[in-house]
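Below: protein 1.
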Amino acid sequence: MAASPPFKLDDYNKRMDGAITALQHEFGGLRTGRASASLLDPIMVDAYGASSPLTSVASVSVPEARMISVNVWDKGVVSAVDKAIRSANLGLNPIVDGQTLRIPIPPLTGERRTELAKIAGKYAEQQRIAVRNIRRDAMEHLKKLEKDHGISEDEHKKHGAEVQKATDDHIKKIDDEFRHKEQEIMQV
């Protein structure tokens, strides 16, 4: 039977950092009252017989606080981009002006803000669960190493405490990101 690989806290820290990066990406797609180019990141456009990300057929910019500008490179794809933005369920209605789509960002209603805050909370909880699962993997790894006499009981306890501290730190970062995003959403 092959021996377990040595325990490296860095490996688990990197995986936990990945959960925070994923959360930041998900939060980037949540609409606040201000325009943000990342709002359009998840949009896929049916162009040239395939589904492509919006950024592969157009450039996205934010000329002012409540306006997103999408400059489509190919005239033939303008209507596909318009359709993709309208059907993305973001509540956006582009104004087509030649090869440019201007997208005014309407102010959020109180009800929509509450709804977005709940969605942000769900995203945060998913990443908290991911971090806890990584902690569980690390603890199982330590338990197996101790059982196979790869590490002593004292080393197991020491590494276990390090894993718990890393977990607590990452959960705190997730909570901080969530609080920040929630304030951003609720700000009128």
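Below: protein 2.
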Amino acid sequence: MSEFVKQSLGSLIQELKNDPEKAKVSFEATSVLEEGVRVNSSVRQFEFKFDEPDLLGGKDDAPNPVEYVLASLGACQAIVYRALASLKGIQLDSVTVKTRGDLDLQGFLGLDNTIRPGYERIVFETIIVSNESSDKLERLAEQVDAICPVLDIVSKPVKVEGKLTIQRANELVG
């Protein structure tokens, strides 16, 4: 599997060196509120659910958005470990990333406007099983952290623009 990753990424890297404009991509998702606080989201051909625990008015049928952020960070880290290790010929037997986010509900519930509504802190631990040298794996970890897209998104400000479109129910009947 690492060889497939290495070949795929090697081909992509060469293609982007030849035509850097191809490196600019966009990803899209659509999320629709359903019953209660359940949300159905779609990305490409994939669908997944969001919900909140009972404590926050949900039925606890699926992870909530902030839990998906933690899972996305862990998944991104693991993927980047595999990608870089494959390109560099580093053997990884397994990679497990444990993430935790600390959130004060007073911010989310509007009880204290001095408390942010999102995570106040995110911590993660990466557990690697490998016979490679500690120095090599520590250098790999530094490189992973430097280029992991989700780590970049959650650790640095990113420009976000929102737009509200209002449609009247009678306008939807055709």
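Helices lie at 2-18, 65-88, 105-108, 134-147, 149-155, 169-172.
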